[in-house]
Automatic annotation (TrEMBL):
Keywords: Cell projection, Cilium, Cilium biogenesis/degradation, Cytoplasm, Cytoskeleton, Flagellum, Repeat, TPR repeat. GO terms for biological process: inner ear receptor cell stereocilium organization; intraciliary transport; kidney development; non-motile cilium assembly; regulation of cilium assembly. It comes from Haliaeetus albicilla. This is Intraflagellar transport protein 88 homolog. Component of the IFT complex B, at least composed of IFT20, IFT22, IFT25, IFT27, IFT46, IFT52, TRAF3IP1/IFT54, IFT57, IFT74, IFT80, IFT81, and IFT88. Interacts with IFT20, IFT22, IFT25, IFT27, IFT52, TRAF3IP1, IFT74, IFT80 and IFT81. Interacts with IFT172. Interacts with IFT57. Interacts with IFT46. Interacts with IFT70B. Interacts with C2CD3. Interacts with ENTR1 (via N-terminus). Interacts with LRRC56. Interacts with DZIP1. Interacts with CCDC38. Interacts with CCDC146. Interacts with CFAP53. Positively regulates primary cilium biogenesis. Also involved in autophagy since it is required for trafficking of ATG16L and the expansion of the autophagic compartment.
Length: 820
């Protein structure tokens, strides 16, 4: 290996290869080694520890010069005098027979240090840059861009931005076409990426369908389906069938579903079942129930599922086949749910490891899926039972009993009680309260959950019948059976509210909300309770929370507007909420009249007239609205138009002279004195003692120069005199009543008897008027105790006027009490 640092000098005589055997080998000359720099350096480094490079066998080599670090040269030969391999003799190099050693280069001859790893050469040169102008590289970049656009389109669709998703899909389609053209230019058509083309077209069709651009989606799907190079393109006919179903083109939808079904191999059983279910639904849409029945029957025999079973019951119900309805119901109940029951999540022992495991899986995502599946199954079964129970037997009660027996024999035993409660609610809808009560009373000895539901409904029924004692008893039973039942707590609060204990009612409503924050009935009733307690800010807070849950509830919007009106701080807020309310109930005359009143208070007569007129248009019997409209036309000097409204008021209240006088006054103001005179005469015949009518008759007859003026003047004097006498009698009656009370206070029992006699005499006087009557009633009612208490504190009865609170408690609350 030392040959790397040796220069071989050729011999002068190239022909004598065996000469020099007796020459002195300078390698063994050690006299000058101390002065040899190259040798000393080799001795200090790993060069000196390497084995000798001289041949161990005799060789034929001529002597050759040895080059050292200082340039000295000597003839180097092997120990046998043979020239070394690679030596140059007579200008011709002997062929090398050894591998070029690592780390030895010609640079060592120039005094370089030993560097076997080549570290002295510095970092490796940079990689050769790709040629971005090459066609292959451009195609690769374009293909990458198309894939990115498809991904962005799918992400935008999942985020709900359908417009952006469609734009990205279109851009991906354009770039993919450019990519295909470039590939065709530089290579054969076999190099085209069909998978990329398929994904681009498929995504574009899906985005068209998502944006309801059905024609474009169908055209794109046709491009895929008709291209024979796409092996599974025929399956997309299912998507085309779905589009036709959305377009209500049911015959074409069925056609494409069947074409897709023909192209799905029998190995894909689940896919074929789903397509057949779509075919059955399309047949139901077209009214071809028997064809739909054949599809669903095949599904129930091959792979039964809840949707197919429920649809089969609907079809048999549509054709009126009772026996088949029963069989289909039994098939629906027999569908396996493939879920674990609650027993699995109950720990059999106190093993901490087992308990920890059960706690971990009790509410995981798989458990939630199982709950959803079970809830869906119960909903299908309950709906099917309620649908077929009235028609499968002679009466709905017998039908319900059959459904209950079938359910009890299945693994849905707990649904039997819910069906019984549904039976009671059906009796309620039929106004058969006695049967409903009997059915619900059967649950008093059942388990707590069912007992609570039945007692809640019983409380509600008795509340509707104003039997507050019974309603309270059953409300207590419902609460005691299940303290966490929000409907029971709400009913209990209602019974307390009806008895006037608003603070306690509020506590029950709050407890119901703590158990179920989504109990809107309790939240609404709590707001009404705060209104009764005059805690307006808290009431407003309740109704604003409720508005966040029920955005379009007319009752909630009305309550918020009413509270702002009560607060009187910002009437414009009340107007804003009422405007929202009329967007929900645009034909409610009371809301429209309320808006008119608020605008009138604000001084905006034009808006007030608009809403008052709209209210009159929907309900032309509201006296307040009629009076305002008539007064508005009089103020604006359109008395002829006011006549129409006052005449309607006179028709509604024919015993009140006020409206007929207003009609006559309008005739007089408009200058039609003849009509006014005739109207006053008619009024005088109906109300001969009306002083105002006689005064206008006298004035009109005087102005018109009629002879009847004297007659009416005489009648006017008599009526005025009679009125004066009555007023004197009323005044003397009041003075006597006050005197008797003073004497009674001074004289004890004797004075009291005198006062009673005076009161009796005053009552017997003819022509009593309202002031006297109110005074008399005071005297009589002073010693009388109403057993029901003051009128304001009485419980609700059927005869008293219903309020908004009553309407809510009777109607809205009842919806929550029905079993789920």
């Amino acid at each position: 290996k030392m040959l790397q640092n040796v220069h071989l000098a050729p011999e002068a005589d190239e022909d004598d290869l065996y000469s020099g055997y007796n020459d002195y080998n300078p390698t063994f000359d050690t006299e000058d080694l101390e002065n040899d720099i190259a040798f000393q350096q080799a001795a200090r480094t790993s060069h000196g520890r390497r084995p000798s490079v001289t041949a161990k066998i005799p060789g034929t080599s001529a002597s050759r010069p040895l080059a050292t670090g200082i340039g000295s040269k000597a003839t180097l030969t092997s120990s046998m005098g043979r020239p070394m391999t690679g030596a140059i003799q007579d200008g011709v190099a002997r062929p090398m027979t050894a591998v070029h050693a690592a780390g030895y280069t010609k640079a060592a001859m120039r005094g370089s240090s030993f560097d076997p790893l080549g570290q002295a050469r510095g970092p490796a040169p940079p990689l050769e840059m790709k040629n971005s102008d090459s066609s292959e590289e451009k195609i690769r970049q374009l293909e990458k861009k198309v894939n990115e656009l498809v991904e962005e389109s799918c992400i935008a669709n999942s985020c709900g931005d359908l417009k952006l998703a469609l734009e990205k899909a279109k851009e991906a389609g354009r770039k993919e076409r450019v990519l295909v053209r470039q590939r065709e230019q530089i290579a054969t058509a076999e190099n085209i990426n069909l998978d990329l083309t398929y994904s681009v077209l498929f995504n574009l069709a899906g985005q068209y369908a998502a944006n309801e651009m059905y024609a474009e989606a169908l055209n794109t799907y046709q491009v895929i389906v008709k291209n024979k190079m796409f092996s599974n393109g025929g399956r997309l006919k299912v998507n085309m069938g779905n589009i036709y179903l959305k377009q209500r083109n049911y015959s074409k939808a069925i056609k494409f579903y069947r074409m897709a079904l023909d192209q799905i191999p029998s190995a894909h059983k689940e896919m074929r079942i789903k397509i057949m279910q779509n075919i059955g639904v399309a047949f139901i849409k077209t009214g071809q129930y028997f064809d739909a029945i054949s599809s669903f029957e095949h599904i129930m025999s091959m792979s039964p599922n809840l949707k197919a079973g429920f649809n089969l019951i609907l079809c048999y119900f549509a054709v009126g086949n009772r026996e088949q309805m029963k069989k289909a119901f039994q098939k629906l109940i027999a569908v396996p749910l493939e879920v674990d029951y609650d027993d699995k999540y109950i720990s059999p022992n106190d093993d901490p490891h087992t308990n920890l495991l059960i706690e971990a899986i009790k509410n995981d995502s798989l458990r939630q899926i199982e709950r959803e599946r079970k809830s869906m199954a119960e909903e299908y079964i309950m709906t099917a039972a309620k649908l077929i129970a009235p028609v499968i037997e002679t009466s709905f009660a017998v039908g319900y009993d059959w459904c209950v027996e079938v359910v009890k024999a299945s693994h849905y035993v707990e649904l039997a009680n819910d069906l019984e409660i549904n039976k009671a609610t059906t009796y309620l809808r039929q106004q058969d309260f006695n049967q409903a009560l009997e059915t619900l009373k059967m649950f008093e000895k059942k388990d707590s959950r069912v007992k609570s539901a039945a007692a809640t409904n019983l409380s509600f029924l008795y509340y509707l019948e104003n039997e507050l004692a019974q309603a309270t008893n059953y409300a207590d039973l419902a609460v005691n059976s299940d303290r966490y039942n929000p409907a029971a707590l709400t009913n209990k609060g209602n019974t307390v509210f009806a008895n006037g204990d608003y603070e306690k009612a509020a506590e029950f409503y709050k407890e119901a909300l703590r158990n179920d924050s989504s109990c809107t009935e309790a939240l609404y009733n709590l707001g009404l309770t705060y209104k009764k307690l005059n805690r307006i800010e808290e009431a407003l807070d309740c109704f604003l929370k409720l508005h966040a849950i029920l955005r379009n509830s007319a009752q909630v919007l009305h309550q918020i507007a009413n509270i702002y009106e009560i607060m009187e701080k910002n009437p414009k807020k009340a107007i804003e909420w009422l405007l929202q309310l009329i967007s929900v109930v645009p034909t409610d005359p009371h809301v429209l009249s309320k808006l008119g009143k608020l605008y009138d208070n604000e001084g905006d007569k034009s808006q007030a007239f608009h809403y008052y007129y709209e209210s009159y248009r929907y309900f032309p019997s509201n006296i307040e609205v009629i009076e305002w409209l008539g007064a508005y036309y009089i103020d604006t000097q359109f008395c002829e138009k006011a006549i129409e409204y006052f005449e309607r008021a006179a028709l509604i209240l024919p015993t009140e002279v006020k409206w007929q006088l207003m009609v006559a006054s309008c005739y007089r103001r408009s200058g039609n004195y003849q009509k006014a005179l005739e109207k006053y005469k008619v009024i005088h015949r109906k109300f001969p003692e009306n002083v105002e009518c006689l005064r206008f008759l006298v004035r009109l007859c005087t102005d018109m120069g009629l002879k009847e003026v004297q007659e009416y003047m005489t009648k006017l004097k008599k009526v005025e005199k009679l009125k004066e006498i009555r007023e004197q009698r009323i005044k003397s009656g009041r003075d006597g009543s006050a005197r008797s009370r003073r004497e009674g206070n001074a004289g004890g029992d004797s004075g009291g008897t005198k006062g009673e006699r005076l009161s009796a005499r005053l009552k017997a006087l003819p022509g009593t008027s309202e002031p006297y009557e109110s005074s008399g009633s005071k005297e009589i009612g002073a010693s009388y105790i109403d057993p029901l208490g003051p009128q304001a504190e009485r419980p609700k009865t059927a005869a008293r006027k219903r309020t908004e609170e009553d309407d809510f408690a009777d109607e809205e609350l009842g919806e929550d009490l029905l079993p789920e």
